[in-house]
Every structure is written in structure tokens, then in C-alpha cells.
Amino acid sequence: MAAPSMRERQACWGARDEYWKCLDENTEDAARCKKLRSSFESSCPQQWVSRALRGFCSLSGARGVSGRLGSQRRPRHVHPRFL
Q1: Does the residue 38 lie in any domain?
Q2: Are 48 and 12 in contact (CB under 8 A)?
Q3: Interatomic CA distance for residues 33 and 77, integer angstroms
Q4: Are 22 and 46 in contact (CB under 8 A)?
Q5: Which DSSP string corresponds to 6-70?
Q6: PANTHER family annotated for this entry (predicted)?
Q7: Is residue 9 assigned to a domain?
Q8: Would residue 49 count as lying in a domain?
Q9: Is 60 in contact with 74 (CB distance < 8 Å)?
């Protein structure tokens, strides 16, 4: 896998931030964020997506985002809500 360009990384991070913002605003109904999740998954390398979802789940205690609790390791990119 070739490293993403700066433009691709920025698109990925923007899609991730929009998806996480939606999850923050819709804590009871993550299904409302389905389109944003699809955008996030199509904008980012799969490894980045799975790592970001594990990080979000472990920090928020959410179960429904990726289907399971994430690892207890702190992700490199912490969701702004937790800074």
C-alpha cells in the first residue's frame, strides 16, 4: 500500500472528524451517521479506519460503533472531545 498524499490524508481526517461529530451528537442512535461512516471508510485506508474506530470505542466506552469494545491502548489521534 502506497502512503496517502497530503490531500488524501486531509480528506480522510475531515471525513473522520465529521463522522465522530455525528456520533457525539447522536449518542443514542448511531444509525443516523451511516452515510458519514461510509464516507469515512471510503476516504481512508482500512487500517486507519479500524484503528480510529477502536480508539473511539475505547475512549467513549461505546459498543455499537464498531460492534465491540476497542483496545485499551490510547490511539495516536485522540478525538477532540477527549483532549
Answers
A1: yes
A2: yes
A3: 20
A4: no
A5: HHHHHHHHHHHHHHHHHHHHTTT-GGGGHHHHHHHHHHS-HHHHHHHHHHHHHHH--STTTSS--
A6: CYTOCHROME C OXIDASE ASSEMBLY FACTOR 6 HOMOLOG
A7: no
A8: yes
A9: no
Residue 78 has pLDDT above 60, yes or no: no
User: Considering the entire predicted model, what is its pTM?
Assistant: 0.64
| Residue at 71 is within a domain | yes
Tell me the range of 50-54, 60-64, 66-70 where mean pLDDT is highest. Answer: 50-54
Mean pLDDT of 49-64: 66
Instruction: Provide the residue range defining the domain that includes 73.
Output: 15-22+33-82
Work out how many domains the chain is built from and give that number: 1
Would the pLDDT of 11 be above 90?
Answer: yes
